Amino acid sequence: MTALRPPTGTVRQVTPLAAVLLAPNPGPMTLEGTNTWLLRAPGSEGCVVVDPGPDDPGHLAAVAATGPVELILLTHGHADHSAGAATLHRLTGAPVRALDPAHRLGDEGLAAGDVVARPGLELCVLPTPGHTADSLSFLLTGDAVEAGAAVLTGDTILGHGSTVVAHPDGRLDDYLASLRLLRDLGAMTVLPGHGPELPAAGAAARRYLAHREARLAQVREALVEAGVGPGQADPAAVVRRVYADTDRALWPAAELSVRAQLDYLLELDP
Ligand SMILES: [Zn+2]
Predict the structure, then answer these.
(1) Cis peptide bond N-terminal to 199, omega within 30
(2) How many domains are there within the chain?
(3) Rounded distance between C-alpha atoms, residue 188 and residue 198, angstroms
(4) Which domain holds residue 17?
């Protein structure tokens, strides 16, 4: 049975300011593929690209063809978001801005509180570490705020499923704090790094927080059953117990999340 999948290579307008081009890299970790976001004020030619996606020539040519690309931003450095950045930079001349200096091309970085402004369009940089240490979200507003306000969340909140806390770079305490921050955005539309857009950041973040709490409770239970503390636990054994119903292709990623959870529990109760 084939799942319903949005077509790749087709630009889909999602909000008045944001359109998406799906990269052809579907998989257990990337869902339908990476969402490459194209941000453009109505009536403007130039656009800001968030997450070029993988280094796929066809995808990047399609991104470049949507209009003059003025700027490339990265939500974080994972290859499924960033590997195409250098090629898109070559194709368009647009600088690449990211939190991690290793991913920048051009003079400017990207840091907490930075505002990227274009006529009719404004992006505020919101650090949301946890999935990775360098994870950023972008608050997108325009002249008509109520018509276009949205938050680009990268892999911090996905369109469906849950995300990985990529230990040791990703930390659970950071991730929970980031989710609480996104929870405060209420009814703002979520434009995620993978999967479909979501109607309200607040509800999505609450669902993610509840999921993390449920997983933590399961990990605690597994430790009690094994009679060990978080410092002595075998992460692979915890995965086998807690993620028994999860597709095994996701177990290596689940083990990173388990390691992050064990670190978190250890720090709570050393
Ligand atoms: Zn990622």
Answers:
(1) no
(2) 1
(3) 9
(4) 12-200
Q: How far is CA 68 from the centre of its chain?
A: 25
Cα(123) to centroid(ligand 1), Å: 20
Q: What is the CATH number of the domain that holds 83?
A: 3.60.15.10
Which residues on adjacent β-strands are paired with residue 31? 27
Counting every residue written for the chain, the total comes to: 270
228 CA from centroid of ligand 1 (Å):
31
φ and ψ of 189, to 5 deg: -65, 140
> Which pLDDT belongs to residue 146?
58
Among residues 92, 12, 97, 105, the alpha carbon closest in space to that of 51 is found at 97
Distance from the alpha carbon of residue 139 to the mean position of ligand 1, in angstroms: 18
Closest by CA to 74, choosing from 46, 41, 102, 45, is: 102
Distance from the alpha carbon of residue 150 to the mean position of ligand 1, in angstroms? 20
Write down the pLDDT at residue 145: 54
Kindly give, in sequence order, each residue whose CB lies less than 8 Å from that of residue 222, ignoring residues fewer than 6 positions away: 233, 237, 238, 241, 242
pLDDT tens column, 212-233: 999 999 999 999 999 999 999 9
